[in-house]
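Annex B. Sample input.
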Amino acid sequence: MTLAVAARIARRELRGGLRGFYVFLACLALGVAAIAAVGSVRQSIEGGLKREGAVLLGGDAEMSLTYRYAEPDERAWMEDVATRVSEIVDFRSMVVVERDGVTERGLTQVKGVDGAYPLYGTVELDPPMPLDTALAGDGAVMERVLADRLGLRPGDRFRLGTADYTLSAVLLREPDGAGDGFGLGPRLILRTAALEGSGLLAPGTLYETKYRLALPVGSDMAALETRADARFADKGMRWRDARNGAPGMTRFVDRMGSFLVLVGLAGLAVGGVGVSAAVRAYLDGKTEVIAILKTLGAEGRTILLAYLMQIGTLAGLGIVLGLALGALAPMVAAPFIQAQLPVPVQVSLHPGPLAEAALYGVLTALLFTLWPLARTEEVRAAALFRDASGQVRAWPRPVYMGVTVALAAALIWIAAWFSGVPQLALWAAFGIVAALGLLALAAVGLRRLARRLARARAVRGRTALRLALGAVGGPGGETVSVVLSLGLGLSILAAIGQIDANLRSAIQQELPERAPSYFVVDIQPDQLDGFLARLTGDPGVSKVETAPMLRGVITRINDRPAKEVAGDHWVIRGDRGVTYAATPPEGTIVNAGAWWPADYDGPPVMSFADEEAGEIGLKLGDAVTVNILGRDITATVTSFREVDFSTAGIGFVVTMNPAALMGAPHTHIATVYAEPEAEAAILRDLAEAYPNITAIRVRDAVDRVAEVLSSLAAAIAYGASATLVTGVIVLIGAAAAGERTRVFESAVLKTVGAVRGQVLAYFALRSAMLGAAAGTVAIVAGGVAGWAVMEFVMMGGYEFEPVSALAIVLGGAAATLLAGLAFAWRPLAARPARVLRARE
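Annex B, continued. Sample output.
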């Protein structure tokens, strides 16, 4: 019977329409839409990566080697399991253009291909032509950014190493570009055979060979990978296949999607504050109705169920609207999304992300509406009649408080489960809860401070200011809802602003101060003396560091596969730089163990980077097997040393004794620290004397990384802006809900002699105070969040950035001021007599 009566009451209440629930619907719909849209785009990208895995990889499978080509037996195995095999050689070099006595150089990522390339997909060129035609003879193609930088047009000549080539066309798109990962230089493609005589692939040169396999239909990838690992893992061969054709892109999409979902959850939390405020305001307006129902014998449980049904129906409407918006938005933005991504994306409806967003919406609606709804159950009818014009104040029963806590825990657990990065999700949830707690405390503190200041002598005679302080500090009002909703949105933006500023500072300012001018690779042993002779006598060069350089793959640790011991740690994921030294290089700090004697010629030993050793669980005395040029070298770890990769100087994870690598062909690398005005002459002289070497200008590499990080920060900022929009809607809702109160306040003030300007100043000051308070607290919360991310996620330093902080405070004050003024005109225009007579 109780359920039927409650349903009848809810149905009759809903006849009144959506008045008072527009903010409720908007907050819920926006939060759900943000999560649904991000999830749909993420699944569309992941679907494209999976569907086009072979195209992105360049084959059904890829087997790659460092420093060498496949041996005849290895190539024979590939041709036995595949229908077609394509061989690619990949390395960095310098493009040289001589024009009118001026020489220009540009870093490029060279891809030497054979006639079978590409196995899948099509290379797009400008002007359009077949790739075979473009690469005939000494023909080559390069990306437009490199061609424009060097002023090259189709038909122009350029040099690589000691050989000349012709630019046949501009490279618009390579089908396997996303699978190749991040490169410091734009792409250049030519035939591998055309590299003969260029001097670029001498023994020890840093290059990688990739063998793309077109496999028979229905091939068992897992079984082939197992066979390949068993046969070639100990020779440094690495396997990838179309099941994850672009692992770097997959990881990026996963992390970015997870992070944006968490930002969407923050938006739902902001919206939840608005939902709670809307429900509370609605119930305050229904005080007389609830009082009458209780007087007529309705039980508290019946009233709770009636309004829970009503709110549940409206929440369902908001969730449906959010799902519709979240499903439609990616389709509308599909052309933009497809143009920005290097992978094929077919945006469509995906039930999974929509169901996930709906679940988040249901839990959020329950979490933020149960508390205000539950308060009505324990309030007596007499109290309701006595406070019929005010707010209902009552704590819900402990059972409802427990359910609220359980809902919050469920929401956090589901977010951790679905995000794929549970640790990040849990810390993000902790941050949101902590920020809400800080904002709530700030709201309470602001009210107390405002009450105290309103009675201070300093504000006497300043009517508008004193009224504004009294309103902010008075009971009820909009202080808590404005500070919570706007403050959380601003906190997220403040955190992003601090993180972005610190990353830019670290990349653009801190790093170059201690980083070298050039990072030089592929210096042949017989070139090292001449290389050093050119630099050591140059007054513009402050320091030169060199080291022998090899590349190796860590294959086993204590005779167990390295992946079993270290998991997916970056040290194990690919080939790593390896060097040798008889004595510790200058500045080396050995944290544990001891270096080998200078004349040591016993079994191989190694020194390992201390931090990375701790991360993968290495101990002194462990045996580590490194495959170099197809040869396994097992060395005992005798020491751990500090390696600071952030300086862009020379740093190796693995350093071995010289005898362990005796006879292995290798080159040297160098870092050159020079004054800016000396850099051009150094590069010119070195390139002319040694065409085979590659000099990577650190500033250009820094700019490339900064460009990627800027795009990342922009994407995150766009996601956070949805949270801010939700906060602004809550703010507008609070301003609209308080319009009736402002009408009465304006009438009273006019009756006692206030003029319109004083009333307007009072409204404006009150709004600006609330916004400034929300912005100030957001700076604290955002600063703490920024510090935590920089210190514990980015592993970098943190310095407070004041410009974005000031913008946050001013933005918060401006937002509340505009919202307050937007709903101030009707109160200002109201006639006092009419308003006061209506309240009699």
